[in-house]
Q: What sequence folds into this?
């Protein structure tokens, strides 16, 4: 640990597994106090206990990131416990890979609400505190599917393109207030993501996709820029994956 984030407070959504869990660990390892949130309490509790053993301050909030109450409770808890919020990692997301004609309205709503509404809500409640501080870093975990369209992923791509537009607009809106806004766009990552909805455990295990720690390292890079610089967008691909 180099202690690059000592004194900083980070909120990570979707922290019970995958990229969110890896990011929370990496930020904590650099000295940040971490506020983790997701729906699975047992996993959050285990991660918080892990942080406690290593001497890292953390709290966890159980809830659905797409619900306004969860976003408000999480941000309020961070401010009450630590007095500030320096980093927000909007990581919560789901996928469902289907042809358009096989995609139901309910599946559209589920993806758009989970991926984009959660991003809006947490950002909406964090920004006032960051404006008061005159500083902060907000990262959206989008995807290469937010840059390129792919067959069988029209709705998923739409949610990720939405995150890109949201981030790029906020970069211009919030930069004059000292707040950095960026987006991380990984290709496929070895996680539970979309298992049973276009991916299988076996397929993911055998793949040469990115590791969660690869993405977490990019998140850390974006969170540790000098005060006078910012990372707007990182596109990531595994060395084994063609462009």
A:
């Amino acid at each position: 640990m180099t202690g690059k984030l000592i004194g900083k407070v980070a909120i990570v959504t979707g922290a019970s597994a995958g990229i969110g869990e890896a990011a929370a660990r990496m930020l904590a390892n650099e000295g940040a106090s971490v506020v983790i949130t997701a729906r699975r309490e047992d996993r959050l509790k285990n991660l918080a206990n892990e942080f406690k053993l290593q001497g890292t301050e953390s709290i966890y909030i159980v809830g659905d990131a797409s619900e306004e109450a969860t976003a408000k409770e999480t941000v309020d808890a961070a401010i009450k416990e630590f007095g500030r919020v320096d980093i927000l990692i909007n990581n919560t997301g789901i996928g469902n890979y289907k042809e358009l004609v096989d995609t139901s309205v309910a599946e559209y709503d589920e993806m758009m609400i989970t991926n984009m509404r959660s991003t809006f809500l947490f950002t909406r409640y964090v920004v006032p505190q960051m404006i008061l501080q005159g500083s902060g870093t907000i990262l959206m975990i989008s995807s290469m599917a937010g840059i390129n369209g792919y067959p069988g992923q029209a709705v998923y791509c739409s949610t990720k393109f939405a995150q890109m537009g949201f981030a790029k607009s906020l970069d211009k809106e919030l930069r004059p207030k000292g707040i950095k806004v960026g987006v991380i766009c990984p290709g496929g990552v070895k996680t539970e993501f979309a298992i049973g909805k276009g991916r299988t455990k076996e397929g993911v295990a055998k793949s040469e996709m990115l590791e969660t720690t690869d993405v977490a390292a990019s998140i850390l890079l974006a969170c540790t820029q000098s005060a006078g610089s910012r990372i707007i967008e990182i596109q990531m691909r595994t060395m084994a994956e063609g462009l």
Observations:
- The radius of gyration is 17 Å.
- The first strand starts at residue 9 and ends at 13.
- Residues 9-233 form a domain with the Rossmann fold fold (CATH 3.40.50.720).
- The first helix runs from residue 18 to 29.
